Amino acid sequence: xxxxxxxxxxxxxxxxxxxxxxxxxxxxxxxxxxxxxxxxxxxxxxxxxxxxxxxxxxxxxxxxxxxxxxxxxxxxxxxxxxxxxxxxxxxxxxxxxxxxxxxxxxx
Length: 107
Fold this sequence. Notes:
globular
């Protein structure tokens, strides 16, 4: 993202660390404190990459409720209301159904 928007791309100033939102507390905890066991061994590469970005202070993982996870519009079948809410958030449009937390995150 920063290569596209930052010095190599659109020349926008990108504040670091970037906030990477996730609704998976186990993933966030694993990035912040690496503990490898049989349950997380299968995503070893992702773990190393996420941990490297965190240690280099490039990004900071932060938890967000599943009800506010806008990226779900790309990965899940959503009901119409949720889809319209997330679509409006992605397009930076006003939408009366925004929860206050989501409105603060995107504006």
